[in-house]
Design a protein that fits this description.
Layout: E1 3-4, E2 11-12, E3 33-36, E4 44-46, E5 55-57, E6 59-61, E7 68-70, E8 81-83
Antiparallel strand pairs: 1-2, 3-8, 4-5, 6-7
């Protein structure tokens, strides 16, 4: 999933292009990116290798077949998980 600027429609990187202090300029507000929302099973991560650092489902290698597979949590997450750029 790529993020786009609402004014220019240009792709932006959640890792490099988001401001720590949002435009609201209210005290105690910071910008955060939620990678995994509460109740989700998909293991999502920001890609540091791809241009614009999209959010994508994490993968691992199946030990039996050697093929890449999508990673999932076995139980619903009970929290929001993310980062502050």
């Amino acid at each position: 999933m790529y993020l786009q600027d609402i004014n220019s429609n240009a792709f932006v990187s959640p890792w490099h292009d988001l401001e720590l202090a949002p435009s609201t300029l209210q005290e105690n507000h910071v910008t955060g990116v939620i990678e995994i929302t509460r109740g989700q099973l998909n293991k999502m991560e920001i890609s540091l290798e791809d241009e614009h650092n999209p959010l994508m489902q994490d993968t691992n290698t199946n030990k039996e077949t050697g093929k890449k597979q999508l990673r999932d949590y076995k139980l619903d997450t009970i929290f929001n998980y993310g980062f502050i750029p």
